Amino acid sequence: MTLSLKWAAAAIAAACITASLPFAVGHADDAASAAPIFGVKIPAGYRDWKLIAVGEETGLDELRGVVGNATAVKAYQDNKTPFPDGTTLVKLAWKRKPVDGLNGAFVTGPATTVQVMVKDSVKYAATGGWGFGRFIDGKPVDAAQHETCFACHEAHAKDFDFVFTHYAH
């Protein structure tokens, strides 16, 4: 299977299942559901947001889909960076599951993480205006894992307002 067909298969899989796999979400009013350091929570209704792009992380053997709220989608469509306050991006990740009989084709397997970026240029001024959250089974991961978020975004995505994901047209 060619690389373009693999990407197409990944894109179709991510788009088709965006609303079908269960990612646990904590209660919005539960303080334990907030990510350490930034206080970011999994946003209500994110499963109905628009797809921004899909990707594959071969090192982690994952398929990923990034969805954005209306503010994010408008900023992408208008090619507006820096992103405005209120922009929220959510990356959903699943293990890749090979499709029997289709060499090189994959669908989503078990969910691995939900990762959230929230733009608030005042609250998160020290980290380029972005707050970060990583969640497994709806629960935030430890603070040590959150400490690496901005450093990686700063090192590799500074020229696009610290965001890796570009809009898939």
UniProtKB/TrEMBL annotation:
Coiled-coil ranges from the UniProt annotation: none
InterPro entries linked: Cytochrome_P460 (IPR032033), Cytochrome_P460_sp (IPR038142)
Keywords in alphabetical order: Signal
Keyword Signal: yes
Lineage summary: Bacteria, Pseudomonadati, Pseudomonadota, Alphaproteobacteria, Hyphomicrobiales
Name of the featured protein: Cytochrome P460 domain-containing protein
Position of the signal peptide: 1-24
Signal keyword on record: yes
